[in-house]
Design a protein that fits this description.
There is one protein chain. This protein is α/β, with parallel strands linked by helices. It has a single domain, classed as Alpha/Beta hydrolase fold, catalytic domain (Rossmann fold, 3-Layer(aba) Sandwich). The protein is built from 18 helices and 14 strands. Strands 2-3-4-7-5-8-9-12-13-14 form a ten-stranded mixed beta sheet, sandwiched between helices. Helix 8 crosses helix 9 and helix 10 packs across helix 12. The relative contact order is 0.17. Pfam families: Abhydrolase_1, Abhydrolase_4. One of its GO terms (molecular function) is peptidase activity.
Length: about 550
Amino acid sequence: MTTRTRHLTALAGLPLLLVAVGCTPKAPGAQESPSSSASASASSSEQSPSSSKGVAAFDASKHQTQSKYSSPDRTSFTSEAKPEGFAAAPAGSGMQRYLDQKIDWKGCDTGLECGTVLVPLDWDNPDGDAITLKMKRKAAGKDKTATLFINPGGPGGSGQDMVGNFDATSFPTHDVIGWDPRGSGESTPVKCGTPEQTDAYVATDSSPDDEAEWGSLEKANKDFAAQCREKSGALLDHISTIDTARDLDYLRHLVGDEKLDYLGISYGTYIGSMYAELYPQRVGKMVLDSAVNITTDESVIQAMGFDLALKNYADWCAKQSCALGTTQKQVLDSVTGILKGLDAKPLKVFDRTLTQSQGVTGMVTYLYFGDQGYSQLTSALVAAKEGDGSQLLQTSDMMNGRNEDGTYGSMMYSFPAIACADSEDPGAAGARKELAKDIKKAPILAPFFGPNVQCSFWSAKPSPQLKLQGKGAAPIVVLGATGDPATPYQQAVWMADQLESGVLVTWKGAGHSAWDLGNACVKTAVKDYVNKGTVPKDKTVC
């Protein structure tokens, strides 16, 4: 999986967080603290675990790889830092010390239970340090037949937050569990710089126009990478999606399920695909919505999805005779003019400043919601055109996980940590060449997104680049929306094709997440598969 932009995330949880402009958005990662503790997890009424044979096992030599880049500029240095959540391993020795562990579920939020478990920092060294995973559950009650694990995307989106807003009634015989993947939310989160340092990083011009700005961008990413290593220590070396898939297999074991039922959105599709590759025989009912690119084909990039979404918005706006123009071209010219203006003259917003980078992030955030976000996007753009950048800054803050008090939620740090652990990169010089190619593919927004140099100077080496095929897995339903801005539709086609048992369901609609935004056809296909085992016809179009 490759990350093409520095601040843009593929997060399906956004529709659950965005509220009307002028209200206060709930920041990613904000939730009540579970009442359970790591030490309390030794006792539980949870049902007996399933067979422990090979739980969380991984042998890289048994999988094909698909490397493309060599990450030439990455460095590595040590830090003894241990973020909150590090702990001594449970009593015992080797893997058995974890196989004997149980989840201690305790009531927390209304209608929910919270649980805590320890997992090895390094699954290949179970006698070493442990880290903490936090999760929430909506219990099905006496009718329970299985567990549905869910993930909202990111990387680094909070599964715990997702549970509270998830329509569990669609899956009445499933316990629904959302967990914060390692390094995110409350699960031993990645730590980086101070709020002031992070503010400066977020405001950095991500689309350099000259060598001085290139130098500033590279220095900002070097500094950010160093801050993350200094505060997070060895956690950065054990935070890949391979590690998370091993965690997920362990959680499946703890709840006593022989097979994994799973619904993952956006980056959550990468977790699901990775699980299917590592443990194909344990795949139950798996639904992967708004697929990321699991191939090495980069003929379709994220910026192309945003270009398409912006054109769709421009068509809508023109038909409304909106204040930005009466033709698609006029609207697009207005939008790009506003963004270019922010480069030359950032807007003051009380004691802060809206830069071009923040304006781009704020603007594209609205595109995640398809036509449901168009009116608010128009309001934000017109206000910025008239000198008021508050609405764009608010949505930029939401996307970046910046809280009202100036602190940042964990996703600001977990996103790059996980993304850079998962993906190889061409280095800083290679990023310049890639940017030129990107601009040809997505001429409207790629120039504003700028080069992807975030991983170039990261302080952890990439994980093995596995070719995700899931040979021998049960049918895996892949959902794709034709107007998805963040994960272009072609990526769903590629995922369904590369996964041996992939089944493609297409929603002709705009926005990010066919499950959240899609029509009854999509909902029925998913519910019938998870609840009844009815596999939808491949290439179904809704």
